[in-house]
């Protein structure tokens, strides 16, 4: 869970990276960093915390140059520590190099082990660092070729930005798991995880990078290539459900419109007849709640207020803090809820902690019935491609029925969107251009390391889930636990 931003050909590259990262802050709040190049040297500043707190004017002044890359991080691989903050920067035989990564490399643990056995020393726990080692070891003649060789060894999800003294290189993995867009600001080229970052700096959106595409920008201009064999697409459906910012255009579609459509579809599949009003769990549930209201005819109102002075509850690393966090984050509006039969719409249930607190909060504020509607299917499988999800054991839907979850969260009724409905809402009825592994358990072929598969099988065994419960994927997809149990 990270956001990346890059710009080249602008005298205020670091200031713009700061703004771009600010727009991408929702993608990661643990740490942030910017590396800038003045053509001769790379200079870096990374710190734990939020973009606006880290990058004060004096800090940005120390990052001169016309090119920069930046990163906001929430850890999905490696612990939350400064040494894992990105961009990672190094000096190697080819010069100075910085790298910013969104995604997760599923074979990084074994690649790292092999590199370490060969004498490599790592400066972080991050999966990204293996790429640097492969680049440094490559005998290829150009930097671009070194990058291609390095990336041919890794598996998994990567949207990457590389900065050298005189080149900015962007690459997206062939599955297209994570987004990456290209824009233009007068003479400068801009790259960002989401279009919302382009909008903030008033850059013009050119297009999304193609899955498997590499873009190189240097004094010769911009050139593009497709160095990796095309494969089935695996764009992350959870970006549309929860992660991306609603004003972004993601995988070619408006996130806001998609979320509203998720809500409409949800209302058709899981109606709540007789309810008085529809409310959202802010902020991520708002567009879907509006869609639910439109399709059902039940009026939309604001029954929960979100405090903007705390981070997302899930971001807190410890369960005890997360419990407390829900109360810090949301408060109920009694005047709206009192005596009402309420439909409350959220985007997902992970552990069930948030929903349980919210239902209790709504009832305490006077709601007589609470009908919980979720604008995605049950989250039953961990993500290995860059979204932070807990193990199967902790995912409430992996070992409980919908009725059991409804009882746990104390909702009068609970309804999830179906996988088919989700596919329809994102415009992919066959669901063969998206990765839906968190909902379906169908992981993309070759994308799960034996270690990850072993862990997943262990989690499944511990949670009582048997492989037989898992829909066996056909074609290019496969189920990780299945390898071991079959
Ligand atoms: P939980 O309390 O564990 O069920 O978390 C559910 C809440 O977390 C929902 O309100 C979601 O909007 C939000 N959420 C879902 N997935 C994530 C994620 N990967 N990171 C942060 N928040 C999430």
From TrEMBL:
| Gene Ontology terms, MF aspect | 4 iron, 4 sulfur cluster binding; amidophosphoribosyltransferase activity; magnesium ion binding
Associated pathway:
Purine metabolism; IMP biosynthesis via de novo pathway; N(1)-(5-phospho-D-ribosyl)glycinamide from 5-phospho-alpha-D-ribose 1-diphosphate: step 1/2
Q: What does this protein do?
A: Catalyzes the formation of phosphoribosylamine from phosphoribosylpyrophosphate (PRPP) and glutamine.
Its domain of life reads: Bacteria
Give the organism the record lists.
Answer: Hyalangium minutum
User: What keywords is this UniProt entry annotated with?
Assistant: 4Fe-4S, Glutamine amidotransferase, Glycosyltransferase, Iron, Iron-sulfur, Magnesium, Metal-binding, Purine biosynthesis, Transferase
Q: What InterPro entries is this protein classified in?
A: GATase_2_dom, Ntn_hydrolases_N, PRTase-like, PRTase_dom, PurF, PurF_N
The record's catalysed reaction(s) read: 5-phospho-beta-D-ribosylamine + L-glutamate + diphosphate = 5-phospho-alpha-D-ribose 1-diphosphate + L-glutamine + H2O
Family the entry assigns? In the C-terminal section; belongs to the purine/pyrimidine phosphoribosyltransferase family.
Protein name, entry field: Amidophosphoribosyltransferase
Q: What general EC class does the enzyme of this chain belong to?
A: transferase
> Which coenzymes or cofactors are required?
Mg(2+); [4Fe-4S] cluster
Gene3D superfamilies from the UniProt entry: 3.40.50.2020, Glutamine Phosphoribosylpyrophosphate, subunit 1, domain 1 (3.60.20.10)
On cofactor binding, the record's note says: Binds 1 Mg(2+) ion per subunit.
Q: Which residues bind [4Fe-4S] cluster?
A: 236, 383, 435, 438
Q: Which residues are the active-site ones?
A: 2
Q: What is the lineage of its organism?
A: Bacteria, Pseudomonadati, Myxococcota, Myxococcia, Myxococcales
Q: Which GO terms describe its biological process?
A: 'de novo' IMP biosynthetic process; purine nucleobase biosynthetic process
């Amino acid at each position: 869970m990270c956001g990346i931003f890059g710009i080249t050909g602008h005298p205020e590259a670091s200031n713009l990276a700061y703004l771009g990262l600010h727009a991408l802050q929702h993608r990661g709040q643990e740490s942030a960093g910017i590396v800038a190049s003045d053509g001769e040297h790379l200079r870096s500043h990374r710190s734990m915390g939020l973009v606006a707190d880290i990058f004060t004017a004096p800090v940005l002044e120390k990052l001169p140059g016309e090119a920069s890359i930046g990163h906001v991080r929430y850890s999905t691989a490696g612990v939350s520590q400064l040494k894992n903050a990105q961009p990672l920067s190094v000096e190697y035989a080819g010069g100075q190099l910085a790298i910013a990564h969104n995604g997760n490399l599923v074979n990084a643990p074994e690649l790292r082990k092999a590199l370490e056995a060969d004498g490599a020393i790592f400066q972080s726990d991050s999966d990204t660092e293996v790429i640097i080692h492969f680049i440094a070891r490559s005998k290829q003649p150009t930097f671009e070729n070194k990058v291609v060789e390095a990336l041919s060894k890794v598996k998994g999800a990567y949207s990457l930005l590389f900065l050298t003294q005189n080149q900015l290189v962007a690459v997206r993995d062939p599955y297209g798991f994570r987004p990456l867009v290209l824009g233009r600001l007068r003479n400068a080229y801009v790259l960002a995880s989401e279009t919302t970052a382009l909008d903030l700096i008033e850059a013009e959106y050119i297009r999304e990078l193609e899955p498997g595409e590499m873009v190189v920008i240097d004094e010769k201009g911009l050139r593009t290539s497709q160095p990796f064999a095309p494969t089935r697409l695996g764009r992350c459906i959870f970006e549309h459900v929860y992660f991306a910012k609603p004003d972004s255009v993601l995988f070619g579609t408006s996130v806001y419109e998609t979320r509203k459509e998720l809500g409409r579809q949800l209302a058709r599949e899981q109606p709540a007849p007789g309810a008085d009003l529809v409310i959202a769990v802010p902020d991520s549930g708002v567009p879907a709640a509006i869609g639910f209201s439109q399709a059902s005819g039940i009026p939309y109102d604001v029954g929960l207020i979100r405090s903007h002075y705390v981070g997302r509850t899930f971001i807190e690393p410890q369960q005890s803090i997360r419990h407390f966090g829900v109360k810090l984050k949301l408060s109920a509006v009694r005047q709206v809820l009192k005596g009402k039969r309420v439909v409350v719409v959220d985007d997902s249930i992970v552990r069930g902690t948030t929903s349980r607190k919210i239902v209790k909060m709504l009832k305490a504020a006077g709601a007589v019935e609470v009908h919980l509607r979720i604008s995605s299917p049950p989250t039953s499988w961990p993500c290995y491609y860059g979204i932070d999800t807990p193990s199967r054991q902790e995912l409430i839907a992996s070992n409980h029925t919908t009725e059991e979850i409804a009882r746990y969260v104390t909702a009068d009724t609970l309804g999830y969107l179906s996988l088919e409905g989700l596919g329809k809402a994102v415009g992919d009825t066959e669901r063969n251009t998206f990765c839906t592994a968190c909902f379906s358990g169908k992981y993309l072929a070759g994308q799960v390391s034996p270690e990850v598969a072993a862990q997943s099988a262990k989690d499944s065994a511990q949670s009582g889930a048997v492989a037989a419960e898992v829909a066996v994927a056909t074609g290019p997809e496969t189920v990780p636990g299945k390898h071991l149990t079959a």
